[in-house]
Amino acid sequence: MLTLYGAPASRAHRVMWMLKELEVPFRHEPTDFLHGGTRSAEFLRINPNGRVPVLVDDGRAIFESLAINLYLARKFGGTLAPADLWEEGQATQWSFWAVTEVEKPLLLAACNRFLFAEADRDPAEFQQMIARLDRPFRVLEAHLAQRSHVLGDRFTVADLNIAALMSLVPLAGIGIGDYPHMEAWLESCLERPAAADWKPIRFTVPRPPAERMLASFV
Ligand SMILES: N[C@@H](CCC(=O)N[C@@H](CS)C(=O)NCC(=O)O)C(=O)O
């Protein structure tokens, strides 16, 4: 039996999307990460990082949203899973790429559009983050100009991991028209029925002090 910890309006939605694509039943523990739900002794025994998502599979816990999805792809197979070692390497590569090249600037851009309280938003910082995203976005654009999906011609965990992270793009109203192949690909990924089922974000997060800005903050 699988148990997923994490509310839909958190990085747990990435794993919910994957589980729904795979049509795998799971128990859901929403876990309120904004109000101490991830800091209880009980939760820290499951994920000592004090973060969601974490997936418990038959008593063993795995954390890191994109790693969980790669694990689920391997475990349940099907067309979402890498078909061979090369595809597995590519899926890992693009997942690490999404986290290292895209996530921080995109999240900070989104914070400055809707996740920070209005008084904490900084339009100049938003523009800086958009400028930083140009390099990885051009990389993905060039890749998708040659193929319909990240691993070739079918939707896989590699698409899901990147698109789930980039679901902040429409939420933050970030224009990506300069990257037409990436824009069409993202739209098609987010239109999948399994992607739709997560609640709109209705909370704000505090702006961290400048010295902590580079640490993960939401
Ligand atoms: N890299 C981790 C990040 C997890 C993360 O930061 N989750 C946030 C919610 S989206 C959290 O649990 N924050 C609570 C905290 O840091 O105390 C992943 O992708 O799973």
Write the layout of secondary structure elements.
Blueprint: E1 2-5, H1 12-22, E2 27-29, H2 41-46, E3 54-57, E4 60-63, H3 65-76, H4 85-115, H5 123-145, H6 157-165, H7 168-171, H8 180-190
Bound molecules: glutathione (GSH).
Architecture overview:
By secondary structure, the chain is of the alpha+beta class. The chain has 2 domains: 2-76, Glutaredoxin; 85-195, Up-down Bundle (Glutathione S-transferase Yfyf (Class Pi), Chain A, domain 2), CATH 1.20.1050. 49% of the residues lie in helices and 7% in strands. The chain has 8 helices and 4 strands. A 4-stranded mixed beta sheet has the order 2-1-3-4, covered by helices on one side. β3 (54-57) and β4 form a beta hairpin. α1 (12-22) runs antiparallel to α6 (157-165), α4 runs parallel beside α6 (157-165) and α5 (123-145) crosses α8. It is globular. It starts with a strand and ends in a 28-residue tail after the last helix. The mean pLDDT is 95. It binds glutathione (GSH). Keywords: Transferase. Residues 1-80 form the GST N-terminal domain. Belongs to the GST superfamily.
**Level-2 CATH architecture of the largest domain:** Up-down Bundle
Number of domains: 2
Question: Could you name the CATH topology of the largest domain?
Answer: Glutathione S-transferase Yfyf (Class Pi), Chain A, domain 2
Rounded average pLDDT:
95
Distance between the first and last residues' Cα: 28 Å
Domain GST N-terminal: 1-80
Domain GST C-terminal: 84-210
Organism: Azospirillum lipoferum
Keywords: Transferase
